[in-house]
Queue: 4 jobs
Job 1
Amino acid sequence: MAVGTRDALVQAAESLMRTKGYAAFSYADLTETVGIRKASIHHHFPTKEDLGVAIVEDYIVRVRSDFDRIEREHQGVVDRLEAFVKMFRASGDGGLLPLCGALAAEMSALPPGLQQLTHRFFDMQLKWLTTVLEQGVAREEVPGGSGARQKAFVLLSMLEGSSFINWATKEGDLLNDRIVRLIVEEA
């Protein structure tokens, strides 16, 4: 029962963080969503920061697993980057903001542990994208141009930024699959 309750709390709180923001949700919201008393929530997560840290740590594990899957299933740099874009977009299904993008928007209001994890998550994504692009440059699938790190930053920035614009305008994702080709082919 405790594992199921913990998982239900993490899932519900992640959804609240991605729709309302970290600062805007409370344990009272979780009592309504999960259907348990505040004392039970505090049993699993004594502080809201403990809950936030658990959410981001679980999310990092899921994304690392997705990176491993992408590397197993896709050999070429364009295929890997397109799979990353699909993964990124799928994470926003249901009208959710990207978790760490939502946290980054509140960075100055986050407790130190969540600030560090948010930074770590973005760093992890940029390192993975940079490595994929460096491999593409080495295989001559990608022109060196502005450099792998810069291309990784541009791709991630476009995805994160478009998710916030889509959130605000409710127009749907206007970035098409051509974005990977534009980033890869840029000199």
Job 2
Amino acid sequence: MSPVRRCSRTACGRAAVMTLTYVYADQTAVVGPLATFAEPHAYDLCDVHSERLSAPRGWEVLRLQPDPATQGPSSDDLLALADAVREAARPVPPPPGPTPVVEPGREVARRGHLRVLTTD
């Protein structure tokens, strides 16, 4: 499977750059930056098809252009990633072992997990 998402239009093999979603309640088609994940009710479009998109009569097409300043990871994303790496590298303390049970008497013999004790 190719890591590049393709345009949803039939017979178009170009890479997707925009995502189209419909807001039926507002009769609006929204074309915005490529979504992070492929959604079942959204359509990925290449640059050609996103520019030529038309909506049904009475509908509005809302085009959201990506802000170049928000492209790539932000400083908050990088700090969160650094914190996650530090947390993963932190050694995990071993779980506390069972507390030894002090029993009266002295062990005389053993057979597997069984012990023979004196009543002294």
Job 3
Amino acid sequence: MRDLVYTGFMSLDGVVDSPGGGPGEEHRSAGWVFKDLDPVAEAWSLKGEELGDTTALMFGRHSYEQFAQVWPGSEDHASYQELPKYVVSSTLSDDALVDGWGPTTILRSAGDIAALKQGDGGAIFIHGSAELARRLSDEGLIDRYNLLVFPVLLGAGKTLFGRADRDKYMLRMRESESYSNGILKVIYDVER
């Protein structure tokens, strides 16, 4: 069985916007990740560690469209170039997929994702895609959270966790570390 891992930058109040802001992030603090904190290289080590663990990528439609404009030509993400990619969308057509960015499959439902997880292979990482992550969490399909938690309260923006009245999930700490600029690395496994 394959693990589905959500990875992201998160404010203390659960906002998970992209590092530099972008479409759909119209609140006044958009782009908060690279503002206000002293750069501490060790705080970004999680992102490098993930490169070796990632065997496939999953995106919601909007995040796919945003990442596909940048990552195919990014030297920082060259190892992702040929990895399989999965886009979860009920409306995206095959002809809208980006050429030259590895094999890409459109998944139409939570059932498709559950079936993918039952197959062979390593971890599938979700970058961005807050709405998708909330839905998959509510469906019990996320296995791990790799988070860099920033010492900021934003009050607005896309949040990682929904407010649905559902069964609780317990999380088990796999790893944690704090950095001099206040960022916390927390890696949690979802217990089932």
Job 4
Amino acid sequence: MSQPPLAHRLGSLIDSERAVPDLRRYFGTDGPDPVPPFTGSRFEQLDGGGDRPEVADTVTAQDLIAVQTLSVRVPARVALDLLEGDLGHRLSALLARIPADVDLAEAATADLAEGSPAHTAWQLLCERPGIGWVTAGKLLARKRPRLLPVYDQVVRCLLGRPESFWLGLHAALRADDRALHRALTDLGRSAGLPATVSALRVCDVVLWMRHRTDHQRGACPGS
């Protein structure tokens, strides 16, 4: 069976001499006197993580701070609604139906497809003023880091703007007996990253570090 197009593209991008040094630089694991890591290196680990059992189905103030480490911000009114209002209750009910202990490579398509609790939660957030697809995705990635990826304009541009990133990445990670998932896990180990950094996050950071400078300079077609 032929490899999904996104799997081939991702495989060529992560199989690079830059991948491990970029991960070490981003997470600050590159030696005894490392360059200060990017603020996003705290996204997963801040306050023990957004998916720890006691808060896995509830958006907390720490989750809202965590997404700021990835250069997005939840507007104050929406933040209050998530913490104290109906939006928070509705999102919690959806999160309770999204598995917290399943990697994307092991998930069923039904866990991600339109109409699934994850997709419905993403839509619910996107409907709120000041919450676009990037911020919605990052907040859900904080709550379900093994299942739902961080995804922004830089990575979308590098990958050629796939129509459905969740489903495309799901197929790519499952192809060839989950070869890409294993490769990403190995990259994380080689870079000395803690186990709390998922294969999805390794993928995101490798891609983002690869393309961010060109994207910001406007030196790419999608910028």
